[in-house]
Amino acid sequence: MSETQNINELKKIRRDKLEELIKNNRNPFLFEKYEISHKSKSIKDNFEAMEGKTVSCAGRIMSRRGQGKVGFYDLQDSEGKIQVFAKKDLLGEDEYNYLKTYDIGDIIGVKGEVFKTKMGEISIRAKQVNLLSKSLQILPEKYHGLKDTDLRYRQRYVDLIVNPEVKDVFITRSKIIKYMRQYLDNRGFIEVETPVLNTISGGASARPFITKHNALDIDMYMRIALELPLKRLIVGGFDKVYEISRVFRNEGMDATHNPEFTMMESYEAYSDYEDVMEMVEELYEYVALNVLGTTEIMYQGEKINVKAPWKRARMVDLVTEYSGVNFDKVYDVDEARKLAKDLGVELAGTENIGEIISEVFDEYVEDKLVQPTFVTHHPVEISPLAKKDPDDSRYTHRFEAFIARSEAGNAFSELNDPIDQKERFLEQVKKREAGDDEAQMMDLDFINALEVGLPPTGGLGIGIDRMVMLMTNQSSIRDVLLFPTMKPID
């Protein structure tokens, strides 16, 4: 018999058992609730106080052993596992015989007395057992778990059952977001919500998802950033706002990219990118200390310290350091293109020096930035929403934070000159008309908002998923997303 035939036969046996239960008026799916007095961890952690007391627990059968008049069952709940000791004399013959028919994966409720076995195992001596839900599928074999990573992502519910340590990552994720909110709230920021669907795609250079609003008969774009609505709120009189939410980019997938991901963006009036740098350092330190108890993080075999202050360096200076070419002294685009070609950097579609510097940075610098580093003064051509450096208009007052060879955040002294902003939008429109579907669109209402008046503002965007990857030591973004995007199986 093949493995598939064997599994199908086992599934049939489970359905036959369910039919027998229903026939005997024991349909487990009729249970609507079950009173739980304690979870497994609280019983184990407080055994001295709990010994001899009657408790009620509920969870999933993960293993069973024993024979004759005694059986042992491992019960897994949301906090861990506890052993259930079942004895025929205590449960009664009928109930004990039913219990013996229950399968791995079935969900049961147990009432009984807390005690410790002769082997020293903290257990529940069952006095009553109820079948609360029948599992009609076969869980992966206990000792091998669910190792197929593709299947783990597709069936996260099974992954969480058979690899319970996975749950710890998502509990940590929740804590990271909690303390990020706490830090921002303590600084006087107000959390707001802005639209997911927009008639214009803006705030970042990325390809959007397009959908259709039937009633209005218009195309709409799922947001690629939170930026432009939040800056409108600063115009409207809010001094400090932030939003933590999903954004959507219709692009490729790899270890650090998923089509939908979580961003935190914040905007603070009367501050600049230097202030934002200090805030990012403080934020990472605050979250790390509260979640991990330390600022030293082991990530993929490397010790990374997020304690302030972080290194600061201009993008063009880092390019010089790691490539040996000083683009700061290059003013001719053909010369810049030749220098990049000599470095082995491909320049498809790059038409200006700023984009060339960025391409060389990606090739020569990014994978060298292990410890937290603020890469500052991005070229103006790749920073359409940032203020120019008054000392050198080729560059902007912008930074990207890099940790563990990956971008962790992006921030500007926000451009608040509506004339300059419109000119930069027009440059983006030209790129879009030339076929660059990642270029930004013209947003006339945003220009109007700037004309009403945006105060000097420091803006920030942090990728939550990458922050979680760092603090949970996960090398793939899929391991910090409960339900990552997957290609459908035919």
Brief account:
The chain is of the alpha+beta class and 490 residues long.
Q: In order across it, which strands form the biggest sheet? A: 6-10-11-20-19-18-15-14
Q: How many β-strand runs?
A: 20
| CATH architecture tag of the largest domain | 2-Layer Sandwich
The structure class reads: alpha+beta
Mean pLDDT: 94
Give the distance, in angstroms, between the N- and C-terminal Cα atoms.
Answer: 26 Å
Q: How many strands, which pairing sense, and closed or not: the largest β-sheet?
A: 8 strands, mixed
Strand content is: 25-35%
CATH topological fold name of the largest domain: BirA Bifunctional Protein, domain 2
- Residue share in helices? 25-40%
CATH H-level name of the largest domain... which superfamily? Bira Bifunctional Protein, Domain 2
What does this structure look like?
With 490 residues, the protein is of the alpha+beta class. It has two domains: 3-139, OB fold (Dihydrolipoamide Acetyltransferase, E2P) (Beta Barrel); 165-310 and 371-480, BirA Bifunctional Protein, domain 2 (2-Layer Sandwich), CATH 3.30.930.10. It has 16 helices and 20 strands. α8 crosses α10 (273-291). The longest helix has 22 residues, at 165-186. The protein is elongated. The mean pLDDT is 94.
